[in-house]
Amino acid sequence: MKKRVVSIGAVKIGDGHPIAVQSMTKTKTRDINATIRQIKRLERAGCELVRLAVVNKDDALALKKIKESVSIPLIADIHFDYRLALQAIESGVDKVRINPGNIGADWKLKKVIIRARERHIPIRIGVNAGSLPGDILKKYRHPDSRALVETVEHSLELFDKFDFKDIVISAKGADVRNTVDAYSVIHRKFSFPLHLGITEAGPSFTGGIRSGVGLGILLHRGIGDTIRVSLTADPVKEVTAGFEILNSLGLRKTGPVLISCPLCGRCEVELMPIVRSVQKRLKRYKNFMKVAVMGCVVNGPGEAREADFGIACGKGMGAVFSKGREIKRVKESILVDTLFEVIDENFDN
Ligand code: SF4
After folding, report:
1. How far is the CA of 299 from the centre of ligand 1 (A)?
2. Where does the chain cross the membrane (predicted)?
3. Which residue puts its alpha carbon closest to atom 2 of ligand 1?
4. Is 70 helix (H, G, I), strand (E, B) or coil?
5. For the chain, is the Cβ count within 10 Å smaller at the N or the C terminus?
6. What domains appear along the chain, each with residue ranges and CATH number?
7. Ligand 1: does its nearest atom lie under 6 Å from the Cβ of 123?
8. Is the model's pTM score more than 0.70?
9. For 225-248, how does the pLDDT look when each residue is reduced to its tens digit (9 = 90+)?
């Protein structure tokens, strides 16, 4: 279904706008300096929206100072206490996420809605399988996709009663299939933009894979307007993983994409240090480009030609490619340096 457009500060999501990559700070929000430092690192990594946990009044008040020091839109993450949402809005946040499973009576939500409307900021209905309302959990016994969808429906009825439509929806679970099913139904039924995520996905490796599978299925079906890859790791990795998912589906073209072969018995150079070195040096490039690092002449030249830049290794040496053409052959010891000389000569960063 065509999605409404929602503005979160200067970032617009929904109806054809780029799918925004977001993350969440892992500091205590009231530790203002540490939080600002982390947000600045996220900004440098390309993060487009950042969410902060608001656990108490000090967190809610700290948002004002944090807001003054960063330019990325801020989202206050609220559970249990509607008054924290009111204070966060007062502090100038660009969006509020509330959990309908634990925010309490309707009148509390109404107060948040009235304040958000006054300030023209959207609210995310952030349904989470781990904290569904008791009556719905009792009905379905497990936080399956039906329970997630019904929680969203109930919340939307409430928002509808107060005629508030500046809404983003999420319905996250740790179970990939349930989450995919829930988002698929919600996408069909409602025109509000969707924030996608697999919650509690795990550490970088497993979490990245589970998020890649879940988000990948949905995004490929045209579902999703902003994504957060939840990892038990440095939040910068969430941003990198988010762009990697979007780049791999051709939905965004952000930063360099490294293609490297898995390496096998045909390879006659030390490929792993070459790949690590290329990966490290690519971090300073912001614009989209494909760089291929291939271990031998079987698939190497083909892949290297298809990429914007590439190397295909031979015995103790390698050929360097630029825009589909072999440029030069050099010794293994200067292969990476030569690749980056060629990139810098031919790439507009
Ligand atoms: S490119 Fe060559 S070295 Fe790399 S996996 Fe393929 S055959 Fe093996």
Report:
1. 6
2. none
3. 296
4. coil
5. C
6. 6-248 (3.20.20.20), 256-346 (3.30.413.10)
7. no
8. yes
9. 999 999 999 999 999 999 999 999
